[in-house]
Design goal:
Elements (H helix, E strand, L loop, with lengths): L10 E3 L4 H5 L13 H4 L19 H8 L4 E2 L7 E18 L4 E4 L7 H6 L3 E11 L17 E9 H9 L11 E6 L6 E7 L3 H4 L3 H8 L6 H7 L5 H9 L18
The chain binds zinc ion (ZN).
The site of zinc ion has 7 residues, from helix 4.
Length: about 260
């Protein structure tokens, strides 16, 4: 298994103690859609663990394929999504370019180009999650006897979203011990989070083994990191922000050009 190929500087965060680690100076800005990070065209060089080779004799691979792979879980339109969170969570620094409507990874310490262009980077938290795709899109509820349709993916959170999630936890509960529902704010900017079931449905329905199999390929956090902030080179970021290939010079070393 390859480890830390793309972003060795990324820190794996303990979701439960996240706020303590980061301090209280949390950014309240939540308007940006983190999805942009996922839409950035893939770099020419792909990390080895994403080589597109599939083992079809592997049960979890088949599950993954039938559920559409490792997806970002988020509500669309007025829909409510119902999820459970799992370890690990990762934290990445990103920038948002209003002009380009793109989220890009902070290049520090490799380069400060992004910070100079776009100001201070912000934290994005990605957490492994299981979605109950069979749940009601109105309220996230599960009907007795219906297939809950478990899907593996991840949820992205801003620091302020994480803070509000922690605030809504019932006494004695942890972020991982309950089911959550997520829906878009009526303003369309940002999301709301609430405890859906104090005991997760996958436990009530005795689907713990299935959940374990679904999340197993993602527990190392490698894919999670890549999805939360797709690794980009300095050149790729410059290209994205300027819309044209950067001029060659001392500040644009040739070695970066191979990723163009
Ligand atoms: Zn930066």
């Amino acid at each position: 298994m390859t480890q830390n190929l793309a972003t060795p500087e990324a820190v794996e965060v303990d979701f439960d103690t996240f706020e303590k680690v980061l301090g209280k100076n949390a950014c309240t800005e939540e308007s940006e859609d983190f999805d942009q990070a996922v839409k950035i065209p893939p770099p020419a060089k792909r990390p080895k663990d994403d080589d597109g080779l599939l083992d079809l004799s592997d049960e979890s691979t088949l599950d993954k394929l039938s559920s559409g792979g490792f997806l970002r879980i988020r509500p669309e339109g007025q829909n409510v999504v119902s999820v459970a969170f799992f370890k690990p969570a990762v934290q990445e620094k990103t920038h948002y370019s209003q002009e380009r409507n793109k989220t890009i990874p902070c290049l520090q310490p490799k380069s400060d180009y992004c910070c100079k262009q776009l100001g201070e980077a912000r934290d994005v938290i990605g957490v492994l999650a299981i979605q109950y795709a069979g749940a009601s899109t109105k309220d996230g509820g599960l009907k007795k006897g219906n297939d809950p349709e478990l899907r593996v993916g991840y949820v992205t959170l801003s620091r302020s979203a994480l803070a509000s999630i922690r605030k809504s936890l019932p006494e004695g509960a942890s972020l991982y011990s309950t089911d959550w529902k997520i829906w878009k704010r009526s303003s369309g900017i940002g999301y709301e989070y609430a405890v859906q079931r104090v005991t997760p449905a996958y436990k009530t329905l005795n689907l713990e083994k299935q959940v374990e199999e679904l999340i197993a390929p993602y527990k190392d956090g490698v894919k999670l990191r890549q999805r939360v902030a797709k690794p980009m080179s300095v050149t790729e970021v410059k290209l994205l922000l300027t819309g044209e290939p950067p001029e060659l010079g001392e500040r644009n070393p040739l070695e970066d050009m191979e990723t163009l």
